[in-house]
Amino acid sequence: MAPSRTSTVKSKHAANKSGIRNSKTTSKAKSSSDPVSKPKKKEQQSKGVQKLKKGEGRKKRRVYTEKELDIPQLNMITPVGVEKPKGKKKGKVFVDDRESMMTILAMVNADKEGQIESKMMKARQMEEIREARKAEAEKRVEIRKSKLDETKEGLRKKRKRSTGADGGEESIKSEAAAGTKPLKKRKSVSFA
Amino acid sequence: MRPLTEPETQTLFAKLANYTGTSLKNLIAPLDNGPNADRFVFRLHQSRCYYVRLSLANLAVSVSRDKLLSLGTCLGKFTKSGKFRLHITALPILAEHARYKVWVKANGEMPFLYGGHVVKAHIGRWSEDCPEHQGVVVYSMNDTPLGFGVTARSTQEARRLDPTGITCFRQADCGEYLRDEDTLFATS
After folding, report:
1. In whole angstroms, what is the distance from residue B119 CA to residue B107 CA?
2. Alpha helices in chain A (DSSP H)
3. Exposed end of chain B (fewer CB within 10 Å): N or C?
4. How many CB atoms lie within 10 A of CB A177?
5. pLDDT at position A14, please?
6. 8 Å CB contact of A127 and B156
7. Domain PUA spans what residues (chain B) (predicted)?
8. Which residues of chain A make contact with B10, given a CB cutoff of 8 A?
């Protein structure tokens, strides 16, 4: 009942303060509503009290708390760690018997075996790749070396040929020169 | 003091299995064939994990927690993030079941015991077919365990390494008994 009362008080104030005072409609409303509304309120109050009294007379209804109702809570974020399962024992679960320890050990061992095996496989593959790359590099070096040798040989042959040809020409020249002009010795520098 | 939980047991075994082979299961095997035979168990006390005989662990229950300093063999400690760190005190157990081994020459013993990594020039022998980043136990040439570490290169790669190249990263060595004397057994 209390909130309705406060609301009426508020509305009274609002009615007094708000609106245009001199307007006809407000004055009319005031004059008409005030005498009618008061008895109405009283009636309502009395009815409410009666109802309450009747309720007391009846059997008291059981009031359920929120926890008892077990209603899923809406719009709430419950982290995984915070939510505790119902009807479960608190605390840690220890592993102290041999069988469970053995099973854990077997699992861990198998896992490690696999890891080591995969590591070895990987290492072997890498080794193979490295070997292949090394062989290829060696091959390339050899090819380059043989090419170099070939060119060297070619150059050597060329030089030999050219030296032979030069000698013939010179003799011809010298002969020709001897025939026409007195030979002038040319100055030359030779490297060993 | 309490037994380990399942995830703790798993992390511990995973760490031990880095260094040991399949013979690790002998670690928790009963000592004899009797129905109530004594066996070794793992116990956690102030974040340290101990490998201890069950009968001894049961006796140790009568000592109050704050007064109990140590029992059995300390294997290492659990970090706050749940990982496990092996201590040098676990060396006898690792050495017994070691899978991959590295033997260090006499001239390499001291550098290793002073906390240095194992360089190739100091290696006398090594286990064949050892992959990279694999836990190994370091021995002296007369088979005395000196410590343990992790391989830096696989055996095949290490062959090509120059003499000053690191072959094995040190993780723990016997020199820690002196160097870390204050913190190795202190519980606070």
Report:
1. 11
2. 2-17, 24-57, 66-69, 98-180
3. C
4. 13
5. 46
6. yes
7. 100-175
8. 104, 107-108
Q: Give dist(CA A93, CA B21) in Å, integer.
A: 28
- Could you tell me which of B147, B142, B138 has the C-alpha nearest to residue B178? B147
Is A123 in contact with B9 (Cβ distance < 8 A)?
A: no
Give strand pairing partners of B126. B102
To the nearest whole Å, the CA of A97 is away from the closest chain B CA by 9
Enumerate chain A positions whose Cβ falls within 8 A of a Cβ in B. Answer: 92-96, 98, 100-102, 104-109, 111-113, 116, 119-120, 123, 127
Listed residue (A77, A153, A112, A100) closest to B6, CA to CA: A100
More confident position, A161 or B173 = B173
Q: Which of B24, B30, B131 sits opposite A119 (nearest CB)?
A: B131
How many CB atoms sit inside 10 A of residue A16's CB? 11
User: Which tens digit of pLDDT belongs to each residue from A6-55?
Assistant: 444 444 444 454 444 444 444 444 444 444 445 555 555 555 555 555 55
Residues A166-192 pLDDT 10s: 555 555 555 555 555 556 678 888 886
Task: Taking the CA atoms of A86, A89, A90 and A92 in sequence, report the sign of the dihedral they define.
Answer: negative
The DSSP letter of residue A83 is P
CB B181 within 8 A of CB B175: no
ipTM over 0.90: no
Question: Hey, what are A119's tokens?
Answer: 């590591």
DSSP three-state, residue A67: helix
Report residue B171 as tokens: 């993780």
Taking CA atoms, A143 is separated from A131, A149, A154, in Å, by 18, 10, 16
Shortest CB distance from B131 goes to which of A92, A107, A123?
Answer: A123
CA distance B173 to B167: 16
Beta pairing partners, B170: B149
Indicate the DSSP class of residue B82: S
According to DSSP, the β-strands at B123-126 and B118-119 are: unpaired
B125 Cβ partners below 8 Å, 6+ apart?
B101, B102, B103, B141
